[in-house]
Amino acid sequence: MTGNGLSIKETTAKVIEEIRRVIPADRVLKDELMSAHTSFRIGGPADALVICSTEEELAAVLGICTSHPDAEHMLIGNGSNFLVSDDGYPGIMIKLGGDFDSISIVGDADDGDVMVRAGAAKFLSGVSAYLTEHGLSGMEFASGIPGSIGGAVFMNAGAYGGEMKDVVSSVRLMRPDGSEILEMSADEMDFGYRHSMVEESGLIVVSVLLKLSRDDPAEIVARVHELQERRNSKQPVNYPSAGSTFKRPVGGFAAALIDEAGLKGYRCGGAMVSEKHAGFVINAGGATAEDVLSVMRHVREKVYENSGIILEPEVRLINCKL
Fold it and tell me: How many whole angstroms separate alpha carbon 52 and alpha carbon 64?
């Protein structure tokens, strides 16, 4: 029982009803399967998935959720780095859409670079296409990364020598209870390897101000195509996954350690260590969250036996654990 005499399930139901007073019913989806909202295509139902289209809506939903601390809630972004339990999520998933899926040039910087504002829900592929169309360079590295720019800022996503910290000028953030909007500089974001201060603070990315340089669109396209070809040739892009399953350990690479342990192709149920890239656990067909966790546990155990290194998950585990 919670402090108000209701069970957690009853409290969550009460929160959902309050949210329906500020969000249209067609954007409050009860018992929504998270397999439809994650790149792994895995996950049982959340009590509700709420889609917020404006900062005002997001602030209202966060205010309602935080006024009932016994009811769980979290943002899911594009779900490209999530593994959600087969039991689902006992609470409210919040997803951004509408105004958060915007991008526009906002002006020139003092040094001649161009400032672009992108909403947190904008897919990286869409950001890349917009920048290429306008002859703006600096984010070619992110063109093939699945997910939204908000999620990319959250974890300082990177590839092929580039990271979000290289192009972020500032980030517009909302407090966890929806009470205030902040604008924080890149320096204040404490960017590190697959890390930003957002992870610890609970602040929510609503938009990002990017600083980019002008370049010939044809040359940008050529670089994007080159990186996409490299990605497609080395990564299992034709299978559902959450990208790199484990973080890069100090002094090594997760994929190399997994390969050296002879684990390429190792399989539990529908989950498998990719034979193309050992750093990816893929949904090879009908995988459950428990299948993926079983593979991850085995990989961690064997890599530790072989190298003495403990691999840490890069994928975010929701309502499940190793």
Answer: 13
Mean pLDDT across the chain, nearest whole number? 94
Mark whether 188 is an active-site residue: no
Of the listed 244, 248, 274, 316, which one is catalytic?
Answer: 244
Domain boundary among 168, 202, 234: 234
Cβ proximity of 204 and 58 under 8 Å: yes
17 assigned to active site: no
- pTM higher than the cut 0.85: yes
Give the pLDDT confidence score for residue 111 in this predicted structure. Answer: 86
What is the pLDDT, as a whole number, of residue 88? Answer: 97
Query: Quick check: is 194 catalytic?
Result: yes
Alpha carbons 263 and 295: distance in angstroms, whole number: 10
Span 139-167, average pLDDT: 91
End-of-domain residue from the set 172, 203, 234: 234
Do 67 and 35 share a structural domain?
yes
The one catalytic residue in 117, 128, 163, 194 is 194
